[in-house]
């Protein structure tokens, strides 16, 4: 005897679009995060004028939740020791008072600094000179 398979009601396209809209940041949230990125890039460029800071992963391709961290990589900084650079960034962020909950994770396989930008409340993770993140985001955009 054959079996009858009963599937739950399929979600319609309109429901999927509504759900995506619900999860997507509002224009105001996007503007606040963009301003936070600009502010943090200004600090980075103040310390290392010739460097190239890049946002990568989900933020770069527009696939992030409003609560997602903003991942930044500092390219072409000339820093030989990432830990030294992270502590320099820690000092300037602290002095300028634009970040809170600052934490340097120097012993990780990829050393990072984590903090929350005060105005927007956006969380940042910043690392140095490992350029596979932006390349991966470019690949995902092309798919």
Automatic annotation (TrEMBL):
GO biological process, one term: RNA 3'-end processing
UniProt cross-references to InterPro entries, sorted A to Z: MTPAP-like_central, NT_sf, Trf4-like
Cofactor entry: Mn(2+)
GO function terms (MF aspect): metal ion binding; mRNA binding; poly(A) RNA polymerase activity
CDD domains named among the record's database cross-references: NT_PAP_TUTase
Coiled coil: none
Keywords: Magnesium, Metal-binding, Transferase
UniProt-listed Enzyme Commission number(s): 2.7.7.19
SUPFAM superfamilies: Nucleotidyltransferase (SSF81301)
Database matches in Gene3D superfamilies: 1.10.1410.10, Beta Polymerase, domain 2
Residues of the Poly(A) RNA polymerase mitochondrial-like central palm domain: 15-140
Gene Ontology CC terms, in alphabetical order: nucleolus; TRAMP complex
Taxonomy, superkingdom: Eukaryota
Pfam families: MTPAP-like_central
Record bears the keyword Metal-binding: yes
PANTHER family listed in its UniProt record: INACTIVE NON-CANONICAL POLY(A) RNA POLYMERASE PROTEIN TRF4-2-RELATED (PTHR23092:SF15), POLY(A) RNA POLYMERASE (PTHR23092)
Family classification: Belongs to the DNA polymerase type-B-like family.
Protein name as annotated: polynucleotide adenylyltransferase
